[in-house]
Amino acid sequence: MSLEDRTKAVAKNVEGKIQEVIGEVTGDPQAKAEGKAKQAEASARHTVENIKDNVKKAIN
Asked: DSSP state, 1?
């Protein structure tokens, strides 16, 4: 996984967690749901990058 891609995924996860907490505190279910969706996207990015790393290792 490239450092740039890992950084983007971590940033998206943090952004999602913050948005989820804000939604929780303000009682805004839409903000909370959007935060959770961003966290899911970050998790998917990590999974894709991990698969890429495993393929590269298998090829080499």
From this structure: -
What is the sign of the dihedral through the CA atoms of 21, 23, 29 and 35? negative
Query: Which of 29, 9, 34 lies closest to 19 in space, CA to CA?
Result: 34
* Model confidence, pTM: 0.83
Q: How far apart are alpha carbons 19 and 59 in whole angstroms? A: 39
pLDDT digits (tens, 9 = 90+) for 2-60: 788 889 999 999 999 999 999 999 999 999 999 999 999 999 999 998 998 899 899 98
User: What CA–CA distance (Å, rounded) separates 48 from 41?
Assistant: 11
Rounded Cα–Cα distance for residues 17 and 4 (Å): 20
Domain ranges of the chain: 3-59
